[in-house]
Amino acid sequence: MNVEHKHLLVRAEVDNCPMKNELGYVLTWMNDLISKINMKLMHGPNISYIDQVGNRGITCMALIETSHIVLHIWDEAKPGLFQLDVYSCKSFDLNIVIESLRKSFSVRKIQYKFLDRKSDLLLVEEKKL
């Protein structure tokens, strides 16, 4: 395997924000995403609901063979706020990640930065949609 260092950072505002009783939906989404981008799950995904005023929401993380995927969701904000971090030493298609978010969570606004961290912090792509 040719070792890559790809890092996708996503910020999304969503109308269909999962709540405390929808942890199963987020877990299924994370497992599906891992499969769609051809990653091998090593541990998790693990999920928790944080019930702290001002910081209320879901954190879901998975260790993949080539690094990690972490999603933080704040459900108090209107619209809901997603922060997604996908880091891998194997290439993946960022468009699959973006489309998966858009289709599953009624994204109102999405921004991302895609970095190549192999020998420096190089911006590969950046968009606001």
State the main characteristics.
47% strand, seven-stranded antiparallel β-sheet, 20% helix, single chain, alpha+beta, 2 helices, 129 residues, S-adenosylmethionine decarboxylase
CATH class: Alpha Beta
Beta content: over 45%
Q: Which architecture would the CATH scheme give at its second level?
A: 4-Layer Sandwich
Major β-sheet annotation: 7 strands, antiparallel
CATH fold-level label:
S-adenosylmethionine decarboxylase
Low-confidence stretches: none
Mean pLDDT: 93
Number of domains: 1
Which H/E pattern describes the elements?
EHEEEEHEE
Q: Judging from the principal axes of the Cα atoms, what is the shape?
A: globular
Describe the fold and architecture.
With 129 residues, the chain is of the alpha+beta class. It has a single domain, classed as S-adenosylmethionine decarboxylase, CATH 3.60.90.10. Helices cover 20% and strands 47% of the residues. Strands 2-3-4-5-1-6-7 form a seven-stranded antiparallel β-sheet, with helices on one face. The model has no long low-confidence stretch (mean pLDDT 93).
Short note summarizing the structure:
By secondary structure, this protein is of the alpha+beta class.
